[in-house]
Amino acid sequence: MYVRKIRTLLKMIRHITHILTLFIVNSAVLIFKKIQNFFLPKIAGNRLSFLFSGSRSIIKEGTIALFICALSGLFAGIILGNMTYFLEAFPGLMVLIPGAIDMRGNIFGALGSRLGSNLHIGTLSPEFKRSKILSENILSSLILTVVLSVFLAFLAKGFCILFNFESISLVDFTLISIFAGLISSIILLPLTMFIAMKSFENGWDPDNVTTPIIAAFGDLVTLPSLVLSVLLVSILSNMTLKFSIFLIAILFTTLGIYYGITASGEIKKIIRQSTPVLFVCSILGVSAGGFLNNSISTLLKNPSLLTLIPLFSGESGNIASILGSRLSSALHSGLIKPVLKPEKTTIRNFLVIIVLAILTYPIIGFLAELSSVAFGNEGLGFFNLMLISTISGMFLVGVMMFAVYYISTLSYKNGLDPDNIVVPISTSIADSISSLILINITLAIIHIFVS
Description:
Elements (H helix, E strand, L loop, with lengths): L1 H43 L11 H26 L2 H6 L3 H29 L10 H31 L7 H32 L4 H30 L3 H24 L3 H29 L1 H6 L1 H31 L10 H31 L7 H32 L4 H33 L1
Helix pairs in contact: 1-2, 1-12, 2-7, 2-11, 2-12, 4-5, 4-6, 4-7, 4-9, 4-11, 4-14, 5-6, 5-8, 5-9, 6-7, 6-8, 7-11, 8-9, 9-14, 11-12, 11-13, 11-14, 12-13, 13-14
């Protein structure tokens, strides 16, 4: 009897998810058609109608990917919205959270982007076979995870000291960060390879699918990993044991950096190009955490805002990563040139991103408030939260389109691989700017409509 009820419930969930997916995809295509058939000719004339030609598949694939990301981001947001105890019991943890989420998306999003580029140009087969390229990418990602986890912990503690935030010890920061990084990697590494190869094998463009989905799973996996890591550190009450693990982590970090910069082939290239970029990304991520920690009292009073943060930050990074991956592949394939003035293909990608943003931001605001209502948490109201999300999102996308484009072209023009640079830098900029924009827009909306 119970088995039958569970099966019926699962069928209902699948049916509802299917209906929602179709609704969102069809809505995106409708917006796309309206812009193509009505707004664009009126504004710019028929000469620019070609900008949307061939974009329907991008809209469809990108929308489905972003919808999946929104669901996982919602789950992450619900976790963060109910983490008030941990945020109060472990002061300074909020400074670490955006950087930790960002790091997972950056490392494995870049891995997905590299795999996508190799699949496009034929140097990697979409079959699960051992190959030099695949092995080097796996090892590089693991090295970067260990190195960045330790660096992020030191950075978070330094940020807390610099701005006089109450915080946990450096040893605790390091253990939490490295435990969370390793737990997340066990899940995200095989998942990235699976999504990149299977999407390509089934006729989907990995640039539209892999990086946003991996970034979403990074959001989904990182917060539970952080909670689990906090619990593990709490269990380790012996300070000698804690300090011993801390020293081992420092040793492995040093060995990882040394091996990466002295290795040959793809590993050396990835580590040398990615490490400085990811260091910058970590600084941006911790800065985002600092912005949030500075407004921690406002966030703790409004759990719906805590729920919105991973959704907003994740979807903003996903939209930026879709654009970054597409531009990287276009540069590799010769479809666009590394010039300062955006060409027709680039503008077409810009317009697609705008369509995705128009649909995405109101929805995630609605989902954040809906989850708060469902869990009995205090919310700001559907109108207010949707308004906060939409205004903040459209402002952010306008900035990020040009930031992503110039990061792509300048890195390629200077002999660097955009796959190692564009996705991490663009998502990190999106995360840091998104926190700043979101907090300021929120305070303004609260002052105007709530106070």
